[in-house]
Specification:
2 helices; globular; 22% helix; 154 residues; OB fold (Dihydrolipoamide Acetyltransferase, E2P)
Length: 154
């Protein structure tokens, strides 16, 4: 008696199967990109709020994703996530390297273990303006559930 082995009928994938696999991989990558964007938008935990005062050492602006400020304090750089680039531009939020700021925000760890501070508000001591990035319910102001507010304290 001859035993038949089970296996693939053909070692090569057909064109249709290959297209389905590529489409599935593309979908997974797209969803993970959206998930990581939601990670910083939705991960605000008011229980971890802190305030730090320091100088802006760097401003990181990418095509997509949030604008990140590197705040220098006591020989350490804190990465502060503000909001999307379009929101910063639309609201005419002004930050310059060397500006002294007071940041109120919540600590967040990325999936890679990096620590960030999600900004609720940033008071720019140099220009006297306070910029809000989270509403009273800790939701992003650019999401339509809150309004961005600028308070002149001078």
């Amino acid at each position: 008696m001859v035993k038949k082995e089970r296996g693939l009928s053909s070692p090569l994938l057909t064109g249709k199967k290959m297209k389905q696999i590529i489409l599935l991989i593309s979908l997974i990558l797209t969803v993970s990109g959206i998930a990581s964007a939601q990670e910083w938008e939705e991960s605000y935990d008011p229980n971890t709020e802190i305030s730090i005062r320091g100088k802006i050492a760097e401003i990181i602006i990418r095509e997509h994703g949030p604008v990140i400020l590197g705040i220098s304090r006591n020989d350490r750089i804190y990465s502060v996530i503000t909001g999307p680039r379009w929101f910063i531009e639309q609201e005419k939020i002004e930050f310059k390297t060397g500006d002294e700021v007071l940041v109120q925000g919540a600590k967040m760890f990325s999936k890679r273990g990096e620590i960030f501070l999600l900004a609720r508000s940033i008071h720019n001591i140099n220009n006297g303006k306070t910029y809000s990035f989270r509403d009273d319910f800790s939701k992003p102001c650019w999401r339509g559930k809150g309004r961005h507010r600028i308070f002149n304290s001078r």
